[in-house]
Amino acid sequence: MPERYNSYRGGLVFEGVLQVQTPLHIGAGFDQAAPTKDHPDARVAPVLLGDGSLPVITSTGLKGAMRALVGDWRHELGPNERGGDRLFGLAPNKQTDTGGRAGCLIPSAALLQEPAGVEQRVEPAAMRSEKRGSYHAVRTAIDGAAGVPKDHLLFTAEMVAPGAKFKFRLRLQGDPDGLSRTVLDGTASLLGTLQKNGLRLGRGRGDGQGLVILEPTVAVTKIWVQGHKVETCDASKDWNKLIQDAPIFEEAGRVYTLKLSSLEPFLVMASRPEPDQLRSDEPGNENRALRYDANTPDLPGTSLMGALRARAEWLLRLRALRHESMANEDLLLAEAFGLTADEQRDEAFLHRFAQHIGKPEPEITGFAGLLTIERILMDQAVPKKISSVKLDRFTQSPMDTALFVTEAFLQPSGTVRLRLRERARLESDHHALQQYVEALLNDVTREGPRQGLMLGHGSNRGFGWFDVAEADGR
Prior knowledge:
five-stranded mixed beta sheet; 9 helices; 26 strands; 2 domains
């Protein structure tokens, strides 16, 4: 076979396991009816299903996310070539009349190998699938920008639960012993990054969803066609050492790691089951706590981001009353958290904002903000049922013989990783945004009258009052 066909004669095959760390939604591109008693017109966005009606992570989704992770890495390439182009291919360019080029890294679709257990979750049985390891997450709908809720409108999406395992397979095309140093180093760094930092996929990446991590051991096989014979060789030992020692790809932007801890009960309210779906030992007057499993509370990223945005807006109004406003503070707030629906309808504000970030107005519609949540990892806590007397909503007085039960987690704690993403802009302008975000986080983390955050249900009764501290690590 001529040498020019060497890329078709074999390559390296990497096989491993992707474990889901935070809720994952790879959408199927449509929604379907999911009526309930209170919401007969409710609909749910299902996950994409593959063989056996099990969740699947598409090869195109993996390739796009990995290419974005590699970014503008150049290694020893020429000034006009990026590492992502060498590894994943180059699209045709009509302006320069240059053709496309195929990449040498080809991922396969990741198929579900082991579903996560969802039997300890509190959603009704009709909203859980033990076969898929998925559940229906009911959230307040977001109005086109991060952290901006729509009034009286819910959105339901099917989520693959944390703990699910997907089979990962990546092929590096070409002569295994003749690959360039650029390709070898780039592949090793990519796999090392997937092991150490993970990969974010699907819906809600800015709210901490969709994080998958490659498990430490990767099986590597050399495959080569020699004449009429297919030769194989196990290269796992050398490659796992190479992956472990390779430098990882760092996404542009500044990372902030926060530690949440509370001495108070905490819960995010779960949806109530229909009366005919209640277990025989389950009371009908109980507020149930959302959870990942029996002892791990669930803190949705939208809830945390909403609390941070509320603090930022409160500080803006407070400084305005005190005549201490920062320069362009309203624009910095929108740049960090995204444009609200009202701001997108305000022509004067849009004009100011477009000038602020250096983009034409048509390009800023639905601007989602540069401050994102990369992950929320809650620690295990003890669930406790707390009885309370119902109050009359009009008089605020106790109602005789009327009790309800609130299930909450005691002394919850967790770690949050935020990233302030970068955008092509003047360095001085981005420095102003960084100063603004750090001033906001200082207000949340430093000791003083405003330190901490109130999260979840029942903060007017002392629930969910968290201390927030800066933490080291990723």
